[in-house]
Fold this sequence. Notes:
The structure holds three protein chains of three kinds. Chain A is an alpha/beta fold. Helix content of chain A is about 35%, strand content about 20%. Chain A is built from twelve helices and twelve strands. In chain A, strand 11 (about 320) and strand 12 (about 325) form a beta hairpin. The radius of gyration of chain A is 21 Å and the shape is globular. By secondary structure, chain B is α/β, with parallel strands linked by helices. Chain B is about 35% helix and about 20% strand. In chain B, helix 4 crosses helix 5 and helix 5 (about 125-135) packs across helix 7 (about 155-170). Chain C starts with about 25 loop residues before the first helix and ends in a 6-residue tail after the last helix. By secondary structure, chain C is mainly alpha-helical. Chains in contact: A-B, A-C. The interface between A and C is large, with 55 and 42 residues.
Amino acid sequence: xxxxxxxxxxxxxxxxxxxxxxxxxxxxxxxxxxxxxxxxxxxxxxxxxxxxxxxxxxxxxxxxxxxxxxxxxxxxxxxxxxxxxxxxxxxxxxxxxxxxxxxxxxxxxxxxxxxxxxxxxxxxxxxxxxxxxxxxxxxxxxxxxxxxxxxxxxxxxxxxxxxxxxxxxxxxxxxxxxxxxxxxxxxxxxxxxxxxxxxxxxxxxxxxxxxxxxxxxxxxxxxxxxxxxxxxxxxxxxxxxxxxxxxxxxxxxxxxxxxxxxxxxxxxxxxxxxxxxxxxxxxxxxxxxxxxxxxxxxxxxxxxxxxxxxxxxxxxxxxxxxxxxxxxxxxxxxxxxxx
Amino acid sequence: xxxxxxxxxxxxxxxxxxxxxxxxxxxxxxxxxxxxxxxxxxxxxxxxxxxxxxxxxxxxxxxxxxxxxxxxxxxxxxxxxxxxxxxxxxxxxxxxxxxxxxxxxxxxxxxxxxxxxxxxxxxxxxxxxxxxxxxxxxxxxxxxxxxxxxxxxxxxxxxxxxxxxxxxxxxxxxxxxxxxxxxxxxxxxxxxxxxxxxxxxxxxxxxxxxxxxxxxxxxxxxxxxxxxxxxxxxxxxxxxxxxxxxxxxxxxxxxxxxxxxxxxxxxxxxxxxxxxxxxxxxxxxxxxxxxxxxxxxxxxxxxxxxxxxxxxxxxxxxxxxxxxxxx
Amino acid sequence: xxxxxxxxxxxxxxxxxxxxxxxxxxxxxxxxxxxxxxxxxxxxxxxxxxxxxxxxxxxxxxxxxxxxxxxxxxxxxxxxxxxxxxxxxxxxxxxxxxxxxxxxxxxxxxxxxxxxxxxxxxxxxxxxxxxxxxxxxxxxxxxxxxxxxxxxxxxxxxxxxxxxxxxxxxxxxxxxxxxxxxxxxxxxxxxxxxxxxxxxxxxxxxxxxxxxxxxxxxxxxxxxxxxxxxxxxxxxxxxxxxxxxxxxxxxxxxxxxxxxxxxxxxxxxxxxxxxxxxxxxxxxxxxxxxxxxxxxxxxxxxxxxxxxxxx
Lengths: 339, 327, 311
């Protein structure tokens, strides 16, 4: 079933070009504010029907990227081509027309649901804003059908978010994102706040819904195991830049960027024998501040393969076939796989 | 050698307005010097509350019964001031969010030195010197400079190291770490786990690692204890439980965890939701979600019984545990 | 489980109508209500307050004298003949001119309560809308709106009010205008602050992401979550308004004769205390104090019940 979805429609659903986002921090009457470069020169495409995983640690900008794609934040530079049209700097009213097709699921289920509204009202809200032509009865029917699709009992329609557990609340969030039948859903750490057994339920649910409704997903997470499980292709971010983008299997079996390899070896695996055999490619030091980024390649301060050129020149994002890497030495380095 | 901690029949109850909730029910285990015991469970399993009770940190409406023998002292029988003799000195605890455990108004150096001054009676100068040494031990670069900082000036990983340093200053026999790496980046988490391994070797500290992350458990735990609904359902050496789980919940947890090296088509999640502690199911608490249940499970709760010498499980099912069978 | 279903669309116009028996939810307001009921002091205060309100409505039916009719029989001998007694019909006694204190106290209470509640209502309506808009849009609009509030705040309020009252004469309208002018300021600041906090909450972001227009976000999502703070602030504002009006009346600038307010009655009573006619001070003061205390306790109880920390 999955293969057929991929082949029939191979178009670029969304194309991001040179996206950059900066934040101004502090600054008073006499001092200039500091600039936090959250994202720089991000370029990639997402094909219809695929799941693109975006992974990285704190400060890498993955959540910011998700919000920039949806125009919940306005990028300073760059274009976001949604089905051919640039939505990057669209005025809010124009953007609203596209929101029916572009939705988001948030990390903290209880924080993303209005505590004063009932579940039914929350799920129906997108319909009220984006499909006002629907009558109340049609809205309610649709809400009930969506609740069933995500595994919620329709009898709970008049309950309030705080009466639900984390996993059920996340289903409400998913229902809300699903009800306008969007083409793309950005999932921002959708399972990070959930217990392990509930995580697995929600991941399965997302996979099922994706098949059922022909969705395209952008899956953002810091958990490499989860990202690996759901994604077709995976993009690795470090301090606001893409360091590597490849098919899931390729990324894992043959990482080309030292940071990717470090990430893969650091991920805890639920397998004691394997864990003991592993040599962790330990990174020295901590992630530099995004306000004061190192010159050249921002990863060089923690990279064991750094050369002088890495400090002088920022490595360009090179692409070969289905893979993109930003490293001066990627072709010469023989990095073992993440095992 | 005698175990450094021996807990029998530990129960923790919370008294609410209209009812009493039993968060931990009849927990028993031992802890040897230098070993790492992982306590695994999800929300509501009681894993955190069990150890909060040992440290005397339960909420006002909580009571703990049973025995927790640290040497020949029952920690649960001690009042607050008596417990202060042992807290921090013999048994220490670190928490998930270091920001809320550190005093934001004091410099790191002050907070660390204070521990030594109070517990070991050292003078300020000696205490500060020892504090700096410990900071170096836990891998904080330029400790003299960092020690002058305030907590909010440090990153999450640094703060967690400071917490560990603070906990280890008195060289406690037992260190309890409650989800210490959940809030950290994965690369920092790897460094932290490495640190734990070295510390248990160097100091002979017994480490209790409370977590829900099986990957972390596989990395550093010698033995593990799985909790569900306030009770222990399986207990034993880590390798045994990972490769040959004997309780359906353990099996379910293993199957729910995605493995970065393998991309499975679907995970096999455990159906249903964790139980509400106020309304635990009759019989075995796990039976509503269990794929291997039969009539006895509905009515009688299985006790924790030994299996092959080194391990224990609380389950009536005696057959082969594998998902292929059930499908 | 789900793989068996082949629903491709959620519209399902042709599908059979869905019949659902929905269970009732337990809203946060109900939780707060329950918490409030458990607070003995607040509950008792609420009952007492309601009793006072009922009294002001039912009381006049039992009055045997109007607020302005002078009882000539007590003239000159107020101390001996004007004291409280059921027989003469002056349940609370008379004031020094011979008017029935019972009716006057009831009227005074009515005025005070009215002033407090109307002042609070203006504050709620104007202040909430003003503050929510300033807080949500931020930027220059917020700066301008808040500077306006600062300017009005910094004007010596008493001075303006007294000026207004002298120029336009003492009347009910002027009183309400004066109080209304200032009561919304504090509320708008509180609401603005809360709005700015709520603006960053994820469910507000979700509302934007699901296509809500800014005004819809403010009034459907932000304001309902502000109501807790607003209710508490409003409840605690009422005694402030009453105190303000009483002070104005105490100065002699409040409502005109023959109407009266608790402040005016207390003012008179304080003056005549030296003659031994203590009831002229005691009754209005008692009502005044009871109203203030009950509002404070209820407000406190509301704050505990609606405390956001519980969430």
